[in-house]
Design brief:
single chain, alpha/beta, tt1808, chain A, Rossmann fold, 3 domains, eight-stranded mixed sheet, six-stranded mixed sheet, 21 helices, 18 strands, 38% helix
């Protein structure tokens, strides 16, 4: 964790006005227009993904050239110019340029501001052969070449070469090319671009998400072969790839479709995905549509992307889809991260989310444990090199073993079961323990997954540190066998539990959020812990006093964190809190509540990094001006000989006004003071 004191001390004297940021390239204050934010993303993409040095870039560069068609001189401004490494910033050294349209309303075929109008003049009249055009959503690459008769032709390509690469290099790599780690919001925009293309061009408004999901499955399945092939001594060659010109011809589109559909048939038979598909699914996209989506996805390595990047990208599409289809809402990632960090699961924790949704809590647990595993395996590496090891074969094997045996998720919605499994596959497997059941009805209910759960939990126990633990429930029942629970149960007046189910509970309520408290208690081992999101009504209303007394009789209260109303807005307006509880042992149950004496952590969160409209809110000084903090962005690249190179750039950035990371850190300090945690030397 960064030293907050040193960051504060390094604040500059620049004062940001409303809707202003500091450009990462020029270090100057600029307005946060749609175009500017897209340009900042492109700057990050060109440096982190393509490897171009910032000193070889210039924004708002004026290109002077002779227009052969109109036989006159022209001057055109490009939003981002990239020059030959170490050379002067003049048109003769221009090797790439980026055009950013004003906003997403400007389409690629616009006669004045589209791809052709803004790129072909420069490409046809200068030595620069590559351009990129974007409106913030659409992303198009253009290549110019001279034919045998001296005529210059411009054509669309799926990508352009990185620093030091030629188009021939990019084409020749084909199946051997390694996809790049996505920068900034690249993956979020790619997923959205693919979804919108299927939605708008393939006539699949109701099934766009699921078609995209199938292709993401294919991409992940193909990436995972890196590890299986390596173990077998086989030279890995991608099947999920698209040549730079393939998507523009019928022959190329057909070849791509054949490759991808072949992958899909193989994965449905694989042990990894056999329980995800019933075997009858088909990819229904046209060859043209499939080639477009595959070309977008093929650029990036999903396994090498961070969980935050993948999770944000995936859940953006999932939440938008399921919100529209079924009114589903999902827990914000900063809430999930805070809860997981506070309870701090490790490799010995059997974890459950009994209302897992798209798997947000489970993915965060897996990432949390992944970081611990990597740190244990590579204790001497610096932060940048350690992050590069998060997806090494050694870490991946350990994570997969943990996920397959120790992480469980239940949900009533079969579509969410599939969505959660996909999320877990992207994070590092563990998807096989996602089940479609009604957690409130367990161990009863007619859903076919019910009998599978106990078998999976028993198998987990055989291979876990608690294999000699005396469980009070029989082998046919998974209750009483989990170390930790993280969950945000469904709640609200529109959701009521069937009376036949509710009467089985001591709390005997029709409100699911109340019954989930008891259901979680039933799933936990004695001494097991849980973090749960609950509406404030349970914790404060006079008519729910009996619920609070039940909680205190059955649990030790570890922590209570009060959340502001902005937390779940603009999706839903609800006042909620985070409650952290530990199931009492039989001995602890004998102690009357009034005689208990233990420490409880309490916090009130005022800021969650956004306002009621979902607009980001940043840290400000006493006069209301947004603060700037010095930050060094570091990333790892590789030379041609394989040597690791750490690249960096200094930035002055705003910081979200989010109290949740501070709460998690304060809770750790609280546990240290209470003697619950012993610090180890790092």
């Amino acid at each position: 964790m960064a030293n907050s004191k040193s960051n504060i001390a390094s604040q500059t004297d620049i004062v940001l006005g409303e809707k202003e940021i500091v450009c990462s390239l020029t270090n100057k204050v600029v307005k946060t227009t749609d175009k500017e934010m897209t340009l900042q993303s492109m700057i990050a993409m060109m440096t982190e993904e393509y490897g171009f040095a910032q000193e070889d870039m210039e924004r708002d560069f004026k290109v002077k050239y002779e227009d052969a068609n109109e036989d006159k001189s022209k001057t055109q401004k490009v939003d981002l110019a990239i020059f030959s490494a170490g050379h002067a910033h003049d048109v003769d050294e221009l090797i790439r340029f980026v055009i950013v349209a004003k906003d997403a309303k400007i389409k690629s075929n616009d006669k004045k501001a589209g791809v052709e109008a803004t790129t072909e003049g420069i490409l046809s009249s200068t030595d620069c052969n590559f351009a990129c055009w974007t409106n913030g959503e659409d992303l198009q690459y253009v290549y110019s070449y001279e034919d045998d008769f001296g005529q210059v032709t411009c054509e669309a390509i799926s990508d352009f070469p990185a620093e030091g690469q030629t188009l021939e290099d990019l084409e020749a790599q084909g199946e051997r090319a390694m996809p790049r780690k996505p920068a900034n919001e690249s993956l979020v925009k790619t997923f959205k671009r693919c979804h919108d293309y299927i939605y708008g061009n393939e006539g699949m408004k109701k099934t766009a998400f699921w078609e995209l999901l199938n292709l993401i499955f294919c991409k992940l399945y193909d990436e995972k072969r890196r590890f299986t092939d390596a173990k077998q001594g086989i030279s890995y060659r991608r099947r999920f790839w698209v040549g730079v010109k393939e998507q523009n011809t019928e022959k190329g589109q057909a070849a791509v479709a054949e490759r991808i559909k072949g992958i899909f048939e193989d994965l449905k038979e694989s042990h990894i995905f056999k329980d995800v598909f019933d075997g009858n699914e088909q990819i229904m996209l046209s060859d043209r549509g499939l080639a477009f989506v595959a070309a977008e996805l093929a650029k990036y390595s999903f396994l090498d992307a961070t969980v935050d990047v993948k999770g944000t990208a995936y859940e953006t599409i999932v939440s938008n889809t399921l919100k529209q289809e079924a009114g589903q809402f999902f827990t914000p990632r900063n809430i999930i991260k805070c809860m997981v960090e506070m309870l701090d699961p490790d490799q010995n924790c059997r974890v459950l989310d009994p209302a897992c949704g798209s798997g947000g809590f489970l993915v965060m647990v897996l990432d949390h444990v992944r970081r611990k595993i990597a740190k244990n395996l590579y204790p001497d590496l610096d932060e940048v090199r350690l992050e590069a090891k998060y997806n090494s074969p050694e870490v991946d094997d350990a994570v997969r073993e943990y996920a397959e045996k120790m992480i469980f998720g239940f949900d009533f919605d079969p579509d969410l079961k599939k969505a959660a499994r996909m999320n877990m596959v992207m994070a590092g497997d563990g998807h096989s323990n996602i089940y479609n059941i009604n957690s409130l009805d367990y161990p009863y209910g007619s859903k076919p997954d019910v009998p599978l759960i106990a078998e999976a939990v028993n198998d987990s126990i055989k291979h876990s540190a608690d294999k000699d633990f005396h469980f009070e429930t029989p082998a046919s029942n998974a209750q009483g066998k989990f170390d930790m629970i993280f969950t945000n149960p469904p709640f609200g007046s529109k959701v009521e539990v069937d009376t036949e189910i509710s009467t089985r509970f001591e709390l005997n309520s029709t409100a699911p959020e109340v019954l989930f408290i008891e259901a979680c208690y039933n799933f936990l081992k004695p001494g097991g812990k849980m973090g749960i999101v609950l509406p404030d009504g349970i914790l404060g209303n006079p008519n729910t006093e009996s619920v609070r007394l039940w909680i205190l009789r059955h649990f030790k209260l570890l922590a209570s964190v009060d959340l502001p109303v902005e937390t779940f807005l603009p999706q839903v307006g609800v006042q909620a809190s985070l409650l952290f509880l530990q199931k009492k042992t039989d001995e602890e149950m004998l102690i009357p509540i009034e005689d208990e004496d233990y420490n409880v952590f309490m916090a009130i969160v005022e800021n969650v990094g956004k306002d009621r409209r979902g607009v980001p809110v940043y840290e400000k000084d006493d006069e209301g001006s947004e603060l700037l903090f010095e930050h060094t962005k570091k990333w790892l690249t590789y030379a041609d000989n394989g040597r690791e190179i750490v690249k960096s750039r200094k930035e002055r950035v705003k910081r979200l006004a989010d109290d949740l990371p501070k709460v998690a850190q304060a809770y750790l300090q609280f546990k240290i003071l209470c003697g619950d945690v012993i610090l180890k030397k790092s």
